[in-house]
Write a structure and sequence with these properties.
Two copies of one chain form a homodimer.
Chain A lengths: L4 E4 L18 E6 L1 H4 L3 E7 L5 E3 L20 E8 L6 E2 L1 H4 L11 E5 L17 E2 L1 H9 L4 E4 L12 H8 L3 E4 L9 E9 L7 E10 L1
Parallel strand pairs in A: 5-7, 6-8, 7-9, 9-10
Antiparallel strand pairs in A: 1-12, 2-3, 4-10, 4-12, 5-11, 11-12
């Protein structure tokens, strides 16, 4: 693993970062300081869907598996970044199908959209580019291992969450909150590790792309 | 990256996990429930030195670099797990030197000690096995990239923190809070990614060992 290029694609975590529907308070606090204690210590508080994170099926499926039950091998594997910056609303089957011959079973697919051009600390953008149900079903048919998108959700506007459900039922792991503005479309190896939190439906993660 | 064995070496995060000197409150809370909201969401609050985590130099060196400035390549590389389960107090130069020919510059070294036999949720054990200053200086001389230990600190009993300082000044990244009880001594590839928190001195991380 020497001589490799490492590209960080994680959303920076800070008190002023964008959060889903501006809903989650993020706290980053210094609890010990050089001035008072002679060293520095900090603490954080955040929702499990803050910044770059993995949604486990238990988010929307009552008996779905939990984040600590995630098969990490699905997040450590070859990955294809697809350029979807021409899409203005939803990524659908018709947007992905032209790439069919490049999408192999067991890969991770990351969508780079105009979302990545939004500043990481501005108010939540409700009109973010998302993956619609037809696109999700197509990816599940293709038997990919994981899908990632460059905003804090992969779906919007449907209280039944059909995109999430199609992916979760299809065994496709969902990575939300990537930052891909500095990444060219193409092939990489994905390394994405969520925190090992017991018994919950999601966890913040760090994600990088590596290339020899 | 197919066909590989993945061994999780992360401390499980839960409200009842062991914390350094029993100091840090860890909160894992369900904020939305299937019963009330139709889906599940959770939030966490924890110190940045909770469970498996990386100490950046800014923890003990006032102008040291911060966690988001960590060179991730030091945490994605060949790694040697050394069996130190015979050590009852401190790992010193004399304990590491017999392995000199196996320790190569640029590697990560992980110490497996009797700490890994302690339950992950019991009260803090103040007599944990640690790395003393002579051992830290030896590792810095060997120009390793990172060192990891299987307890929530790598040092104890010295308010000057000489182990941390020797490692930090030597450019050796410090991984604390590993769980290695199920890992055999030997060679692996380390994959360890801390959360991308801006402006702080440490971050919780997920760590795994992989082997083809």
């Amino acid at each position: 693993m020497n001589g490799m290029e490492i590209i960080d694609i994680s959303w920076p975590i800070s008190a002023d970062m964008t959060t889903y529907k501006n809903r989650s308070e993020v706290s980053v606090q210094e609890t010990r300081t050089f001035e008072r204690d002679g060293w520095r210590e900090s603490a954080i508080a955040l929702g499990c869907h803050t910044g770059t994170h993995i949604d486990a099926p238990a988010h929307f499926i009552k008996n779905g598996h939990l984040i600590h039950q995630t098969n990490l091998s699905a997040l450590l594997r070859p990955c294809l970044v697809l350029d979807m910056t021409h899409v203005t609303n939803a990524i659908s089957r018709a947007d992905i199908a032209p790439h069919a011959q490049d999408i192999h079973p067991g890969e991770a697919i990351l969508f780079k959209t105009t979302n990545s051009a939004l500043p990481a600390t501005q108010d939540f953008e409700p009109a973010f580019v998302y993956l619609d149900e037809s696109g999700a079903r197509y990816l599940a048919e293709k038997k990919i291992a994981a899908v990632g998108i460059d905003y804090l959700g992969i779906e919007r506007g449907n209280p039944q969450h059909p995109t999430h459900i199609a992916l979760m039922e299809g065994g496709v792991i969902i990575i939300e909150g990537l930052r891909l503005g500095h990444v060219r479309a193409g092939r990489y190896n994905l390394i994405c590790l969520p925190l090992n939190i017991l018994g919950v439906e999601a966890a913040p993660a760090r994600a990088v792309l590596v290339r020899e």
